[in-house]
Amino acid sequence: MTQPIRHEVTLKKVVLHIPGMEALEPHTSEFAAADGNPLPLRTYHPAVADGPLPAVVLVEGYADPRFAPFLGCSFIDMEWTISVAQLIAASGMVAVTYANRAPADDLGALLSHLRSNGRALGIDSSRVGLWATSGNGPVAVSASPSVACIVLSNTYTCDLDGATHVADAARTFGFAVPPDCVLPRVPTFVIRSGNDEMPGLNESLDRFVGQALATGAPLAVVNHPDGPHSFDLFHDSELTRQILRQALTFLRAHLAP
Length: 257
Description:
Elements lengths: L26 E6 L5 E7 L8 E6 L5 H8 L7 H12 L3 E5 L4 H15 L5 E12 L2 H7 L5 E7 L9 H9 L14 E6 L7 H14 L4 E6 L6 H4 L3 H17 L3
Parallel strand pairs: 3-4, 3-5, 5-6, 6-7, 7-8
Antiparallel strand pairs: 1-2, 2-4
């Protein structure tokens, strides 16, 4: 069978590098999806691990049956996904990547699997965070009450005050938007790029941040003034690396025992 041609974006790695990260290969297993059928699960572990560790799930908001034919590979096989997972593992946490058929429901099934099987996976299931980008944001936001903290990197979130930016983008790009908008109640690290080119993203993100702050949500926001949407792939600068280090530091701090 002819392999699909991969979109160039799937071949790009994040611009931050930690020595030794490429040597951190995933452990492959399965979890029961929301429909009861198995889906692939990959965990990336630090080179030296002492007891169960906190974990960070890289959230997917696109159903793989649609995502893979469009980009030529699944989300878990993108070089972005692999390199960010390696960064997380090289920073002392377990990174979790997975496949899905129903984005919101399967993330819920995955988190349930981690709660039930965390110790066998080397994970402290009481210390799990989420990392989401772009159209993966709405699914991560909806799952935030089930985790300890989240990182939202240039994400769509949810429509507020009658706006339709997120719904419009979801129809165009095909990502999932769970029905209930959840303003964060757990520590949340928001990355915003000033030159984000995705339609309506900054408008919806700014409204989301404003309302979250108004409710006293534990929110940290960093702005990359010159950054494009995928700044961590295309803006090779010290500021980009600094922001990514801040995100990793945030996760370590809020997932500490």
